[in-house]
Amino acid sequence: MIDVILAILAATAQPGAQPGVPEPAAAPVAAQAASTQSSLAAEPQQATGRFTTALEVKPILAATHGSWIHVREFDGQDLLYVTHLWSWRCGLAQVKLGVNGNPPEIWPLPDCHLEEGFPNIIKDEDGMPYRSYPLGSLQQVAVEVTYDDLSTETLVFGRNGQPLH
Length: 165
Prior knowledge:
four-stranded antiparallel β-sheet, three-stranded antiparallel β-sheet, alpha+beta, 4 helices
């Protein structure tokens, strides 16, 4: 609960804002990304055996890069799945995806179910871990993962879901 309160406070804080001083015009994408990153707060890193911290999740995601995303053709569409990332979301602070060279956008993660025996479980009310695109349109997907210790990892994947080198 304290994490939620701190996240709300951090999200509403405006460091450096002064009364009566107008805000600058919209910042470039890189500045906006840095602003989003700075609004995140690092969480304590203690192994719990429940896979709810970067300490526990980072080695798993490092070993399973080829499973981070999946592109499936279905019903005349490309479906971009992030099921694997959702399955380890309790150790993540944020996930951003950029499709076909477009700037990455935040893909909201469902809450962790800390009251459950398996906090990373995906429940019906969490929604579906995919988005649809026109058939054949997905060629490249950049994924930026921010762990809850605020370290980041960025990989670019081809249509086949494998990292490009």
